[in-house]
Amino acid sequence: MAREHGLDPSQMALAYVTSRPFVTSNIIGATKLDQLEINLKSIDVTLSDEVIEAIEAIHTSQPNPAP
C-alpha cells in the first residue's frame, strides 16, 4: 500500500504512529545506519487523509494480525 502512494513502507508506518494523538514516543528498530536515516526522515512525512483512511481500513479488517 505504501508504494501505491509513493511512500517508503517504514516511513509510512512510523509517520502513521507518530500522527496518533495518544502516542508520546515512537520506538524505531533500525539495525543499520541506512535504516536509521530512512526512519528519521519519517518525521518529515505528512500522510494524506486518503492514506490514513487506507491504513485504518486495513486495521479494521485485520485488528490483530499476529495473535
Automatic annotation (TrEMBL):
InterPro entries hit by this protein: AKR_Detox_Biosynth, NAD(P)_OxRdtase_dom_sf, NADP_OxRdtase_dom
Any Pfam family the entry gives: Aldo_ket_red
Transmembrane segments: none
Keyword terms, alphabetized: Oxidoreductase
Alphabetized GO MF terms: oxidoreductase activity
PANTHER family xref list: NAD(P)-LINKED OXIDOREDUCTASE SUPERFAMILY PROTEIN (PTHR43364:SF4), NADH-SPECIFIC METHYLGLYOXAL REDUCTASE-RELATED (PTHR43364)
Protein name: NADP-dependent oxidoreductase domain-containing protein
Species name: Pseudomonas syringae pv. maculicola
